[in-house]
Amino acid sequence: MYEKIKNSSLTKSLFNTKNLGLYVVLLIGLSVTWSTIKTIQKNYSLQRQIVTLQQSVAVQTQMNKNETLLINYYSSDSYLSLEARKYFNKALPGEKLILVPTAVSNKYIHQTAVINSDISNNKSKVIQNWQDWVNFFFHKTPTS
């Protein structure tokens, strides 16, 4: 059997010196193709990382701009004036303070706003958040 395989024309043509050179070229081509594919894959993953980092830099830059605007606002005279009015009951000359009873002011507020403010005053925010999620998942309307 071994002699039959050894003497077959297919075996002789496969191990011919001309074909062995072709096999070496084919092997080199496959290795170059494989390394190219690996390089492309690595470049793709690095490009995704670059895009992700660029997006995070853009977000952080926007957050820095927002913080700068807040700093400028907090150092402005208008903010100081509002805070002085709010916490120290200060007013500009000629301004008058009018106290409106709660019952009168509630007539002009939308009912859902009053209910929501009562709920937030009675429950902690964590409990209210959980209740909102449960209502959302079970398609329930919020109860007071």
Give a structural overview.
The radius of gyration is 38 Å and the shape is elongated. It has helices at about 1-5, 10-15, 15-75, 75-90, 100-105, 110-120, 125-135. The protein has seven helices and no strands. The chain has two domains: about 1-95; about 100-144, no CATH class. With about 140 residues, the chain is mostly helical.
Gross morphology is elongated
Low-pLDDT residue spans: none
Q: Can you count the helices?
A: 7
Q: What fraction, in percent, of the residue positions are helical?
A: over 70%
Task: Provide keyphrases for this structure.
single chain; 144 residues; mainly alpha; 2 domains
Could you write a compact summary of the structure shown?
This protein is mostly helical. The chain is built from seven helices and no strands.
Helices and strands, with pairings:
Elements (H helix, E strand, L loop, with lengths): L1 H5 L2 H6 L2 H58 L2 H12 L13 H6 L3 H12 L2 H13 L7
